[in-house]
Amino acid sequence: MPVKVKIPTPLQKLVNRQSEVNAEGENVTSLIDNMEEQYPGIKDRICDEQGKVRRFVNIYLNGEDIRFLNAESTAIKSGDEISIIPAIAGGGC
Asked: Which of 28, 29, 55, 91 is a good FRET partner for 43, with 20 to 30 A between their CA atoms?
């Protein structure tokens, strides 16, 4: 079941400079594992040592933050769209 995954600019070097890739999985964890098989090294940038999405990385399923769904266990289906968004920090002007 292919899912479109939007890749942020800082990670595009790991996916042959593509802004979108296709991956498969029944949930977010298996999708990230499938991406790691295709593009070695990407999982380390998205997940911590326990396999949880790093706190400075946000993942959205069809526009909804997975942290407010079932986190890494959030189910996905064919045709869904995943967006990986690195958190942006900044100070005042």
From this structure: 91
What domain count does the chain have? Answer: 1
Domain span holding position 13: 2-86
Residue type, 11: L
Specify the CATH number for the domain of residue 37: 3.10.20.30
- Which tokens is 78 given? 């064919």
20-24 sheet: strands from edge to edge: 20-24, 2-6, 81-86, 57-61, 64-65
What tens digit of pLDDT does each residue of 45-67 get? 999 999 999 999 999 999 999 99
pTM value? 0.89
Contact predicate 3/23, CB 8 Å: yes
